[in-house]
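Structure tokens please, single chain.
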Amino acid sequence: MSSPCDPRPTPGCPVAPISVDSPDYNRGYIRSSGFDEALSMTRCRPTIKLVLADPDQGIPFSYLRYQSLSRIMLPGSDNLTDESFARDMTTFLATHRSEGRQGCPVEISTGIAPFDNLSDSTLTSFGFVLEPPKKDGRPQFAVRRFANHPPPAPSAVLAPVADAFDILPTAPHDAYFQKRVDLEKKMFPYGEAYLSNLPGALTHMCDVGSDRHWVAVDRTTDLVVSYTTMRYGRGIAYLQNAGTEQAYRRKGLSRALHEMAANDALERGFDGMATNGFDDQAWACWIAMGFVEDRSPFKHWELKMSE
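Here you go.
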């Protein structure tokens, strides 16, 4: 089984739901949305490697190693203090340089466990610089508490769209799964190499966890015109991705899919769900569906390395 600080998910290992208001919720969320998802999505980018912490080998942090960037994910121990971080960062940077990565910046995010207790002065002492906040200082994290915004019954969810659309679950190797992937490819310009590996990455996410996908199918054309993906892991219900074809927006499809996902999470014993969004349109959608900007913004730090 994975250790507390091991970012690798344990395939088929169920985790009891964590309450939205638990102090452990942040950690579960970042490990699910950041580490587990990143591990799967590295399959879209063969040049990215997940390096797991091994203090005995001079690797004090788990991190993602890109061609021109190192992103620290987790420390090798949950008992993180300013003093232990300073010691471990010194070791990490020495290894970083010895591998010939002197010119590769190092990134780390604070404001979320287990890095939430680090003082800014500890990071700045190494030369880390705080990156500017996202547009309008918007948080990257929102939650919907089912006690405040319970999902309507599935029959009520489906009624407004039932005349023209089918709302269906889908999964890898299902007839509609590739159409769901094709819609994501169309909507998000990730790049050719990334998109070519996207089906395998999404399949991996299902294999190591219990991801669920729902699609809206135009009954006339048999095309997938909207989709929602839920990720279940680390005790968190996480709305991982969603999208709707431009011509089919404002028809209630996003809401129908979202509420089906919320019902699924509620039936699994979760008292809420989390998501993130990075533009005005996404936030307007989530807020309309009962999400609230619930956490302080993460702080993103970067250390530029000299050649």
